[in-house]
Specification:
Length: 337
């Protein structure tokens, strides 16, 4: 994504996505402020496998993941391949290469991955490695641990054959220089200084995997780690139930363990949409004064192929590969007035 993207979607995505998709009917719904508003998705839709869902406008990621699945590949390979696209994209300033740095001007990366057998791997505060999601997978598959951090994660990556690269582009350096003058707060709504790719896939066998990767909040304190590498916060899957992932200000996601919460709510019978809404309401309830200032968005999918999406604010969107089509959708959201 670019600095422009969220501004664009705030103005126009609802119209274009709904017009272009042909998948969903537009239903009316009662929001939590008592207003009637158009619901943006049909959360009860089911579909044939495979399915991929990703945060934000990540068409290239869902295409890469779908290609793996359409060729008979597994969900784990699909989510890794999908996540690698934004990681390598210098235009995407919140993930991997080109990600906006912390306030010291250093790009630090967080990522996690989880498969249908409940295996998990993660890295946090990793520097100078283009594909943290692949290092996370290597942690999962080649070590007895779940998470490696900082210098240890870097040493592990280098030992595994990953190469060190400078991830700070001229563009992101310029944004940092500008930030040093303006000192905008991090996580501000609809200012493009944070976003993460969370991606969930159900393969042709019905097995689920998930991945989450980010450079975290731009201009964060040096050493800060967000929700994205935390299993159960930034992403969680359970092959008996489904999966969930998060984007937005990680501090709120971590304090409510959002992705795990959503999966557990689905286990108890909630639909993915209901579970995402409940997880956002937890944040609202716990942080009634500040939730209006900071954005969080959740995605979920269950084993029936139903999905859900919900954000605190207008502006959260997601890319869905379902029934052979890739589409961008606006998420429904809490704060309608
Ligand atoms: N969740 C990420 C973090 O807190 C940032 C984001 O998704 O915008 O690091």
């Amino acid at each position: 994504m670019t600095i422009k993207r969220r501004k664009f979607l705030k103005k126009s995505v609802i119209g274009t996505a709904m017009a272009g998709s042909g998948l969903w009917g537009c239903t009316t719904d009662q929001n939590h402020n008592g207003n009637t508003a158009a619901a943006s998705i049909n959360p009860h839709s089911q579909s044939s496998l495979p399915i991929v869902i990703a945060t934000w406008d990540n068409l290239k990621a869902t295409e890469a993941a779908a290609e793996v699945l359409n060729n008979g590949g597994g969900a784990l390979d699909a989510v890794e391949q999908g996540a690698k696209l934004p990681e390598a994209d210098p235009q995407d300033n919140s993930v991997g290469y080109g990600g906006l740095p912390d306030r010291s001007g250093i790009v630090t990366l967080d990522a996690c991955i989880m498969d249908h057998q409940g295996n998990a791997g993660a890295v946090c505060f990793l520097q100078n490695i283009m594909h943290p999601i692949s290092v996370a997978r290597r942690v999962m598959e080649s070590t007895p641990h779940v998470m490696l951090s900082g210098q240890g994660a870097l040493e592990f990556a280098l030992a595994e054959g990953f190469e060190e690269e400078n991830l700070l582009t001229e563009d992101s350096k310029q944004h940092w220089e500008q930030w040093k003058v303006e000192k905008k707060p991090y996580g501000e709504i609809n200012f493009e200084n944070h976003d993460t790719i969370g991606i969930l896939a159900l393969d042709q066998q019905g097995n689920i995997s998930g991945a989450c990767t980010t450079s975290g909040l731009a201009f964060k304190m040096h050493g800060r780690v967000g929700d994205s590498p935390i299993i159960g916060a930034g992403m969680y899957v359970d092959n008996e139930v489904g999966g969930a992932c998060a984007t937005g200000v990680g501090e709120y996601v971590m304090k409510t363990l959002g992705s795990f919460l959503i999966v557990e709510l689905m286990r108890q019978g909630r639909s993915p949409q209901e579970a995402c809404e409940e997880a956002i309401q937890r944040i609202v309830k716990r942080h009634p004064k500040v939730y209006r200032e900071y954005e969080v968005g959740y995605l979920a999918v269950n084993k029936k192929g139903q999905h859900g999406a919900y954000g605190t604010e207008q502006g959260f969107e997601y890319t869905l590969f379902q029934n052979g089509n890739h589409n961008l959708f606006p998420s429904d959201y809490y704060l309608k007035s």
